[in-house]
């Protein structure tokens, strides 16, 4: 079998390999326990890209309430298959899977963050370039800071239009809506939270 399938459709070996792909792609401090990815919350989906029946990539998404948009929580390719176009295949398969939604959001680490070394900066810039090539844009919002534990770092918020006929986040009012939707439905904090207020204010959206 080749293509994108829900994790619930995998056999035991495929599920184990999916877990390995996920855990090898992200450091422990950035990972949600794998069991929580497969507990079948109605607004979340773990999807696996199969190549000849072998898992080669994963995508984990959450629907953002009733906004008609989706947040990409995790996106990873088997490290032995990187540089072979698998990431591009996974992205296109994911966009096809999400037909009917308006926008796909994701956040990534900022290559311009101070205090990081050149190796890390290069990796982060590669991610920006990768997603840009696939049609995602960096949204012009400032101080977007996901509430990850005690150590919080501003990140880049990206968006990709899933339907060409639907106006994107750069329409009037769209940026503020994007910020509020991601903070509320991905991270569980409302527009009155200081983090949200700061992002909206520094982005000139409030």
Automatic annotation (TrEMBL):
This protein's UniProt keywords: Transferase
The keyword Transferase is assigned to this record? yes
Report if keyword Repeat is assigned: no
What SUPFAM superfamilies does this protein map onto?
Acyl-CoA N-acyltransferases (Nat)
Against InterPro entries, the record matches this protein to: Acyl_CoA_acyltransferase, GNAT_dom
Q: What is this protein called?
A: Acetyltransferase (GNAT) family protein
One GO MF annotation is:
acyltransferase activity, transferring groups other than amino-acyl groups
Q: Where is each N-acetyltransferase domain found?
A: 5-163
Gene source species: Actinophytocola oryzae
Q: Name one Pfam family in it.
A: Acetyltransf_1
User: What lineage is this protein's organism placed in?
Assistant: Bacteria, Bacillati, Actinomycetota, Actinomycetes, Pseudonocardiales
